[in-house]
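Give me the fold.
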Amino acid sequence: MTRLSGAVRGVVAVLVALLTVTAASTTARADADPVAPADFVALRTVDPTILQEMRYFTPHNFVGERIDGYRQPICILTRPAAEALHKAQRKLLRQGYTLKVYDCYRPQRAVNHFVRWAENLNDERLKGEFYPNVDKSRLFDDGYIAAKSGHSRGSTMDLTIVKLPAAPTRPYVPGEPLVPCYAPQQQRFPDNSVDMGTGFDCFDTLAHTLDPRIQGQQRANRTLLKSTLEGLGFVNLAEEWWHYTFKPEPYPDTYFDFPVTARSLAQRY
């Protein structure tokens, strides 16, 4: 009887161990990050010549810190959008220019980060650069911040044009003096982009693509970007000269939340 009880206890112990492992495995799967659909790609695998300056991986953005979900400084897009961007790049390279992306796919958790920041009216670390003329309490009403973003659907990107050979862009130093994003190019934070009249993510009406106050070479630069992309199926957001969406979108109604990392693509397999 003692021997049998010992055997039973041994079996019970094994079962408990198996159940513990199974439960832990189930919990791990439940807690695991979502992964990208099969037709999402890293832009570098489609066109390694397009420059990438992924601003939300850095503190140089309107929030002033790295944004949730940006675990690597890489551009992820749906394959149709990436391939169309490759065609645009070939056109621009022949003219002595290259594209540079600031943001591509954006997870919903990043958008949620923007919303939390916008609701905290006391946090205005980067106001002097990105929204000097906008009262932070109006960011939702004026359309600068929203609970959903087309970037989360995977076919929208923020980008600019750089004259070749591309000069390096120095790193942003947190706490450095801020200059308004609409100041003359030689006074703004140094960016190797051609002069578009404002910096990227400038919360100001001067950033509207066809604002009549933008003339001369600045307007010509915006027009070059716009005409190149629109000829390949991209649609510009009129309020942001840098914002384009490839149409038709593979996922027009889906807002993804997998993190920006190569692992989000690799885990599909």
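The longest helix spans residues 2-31.
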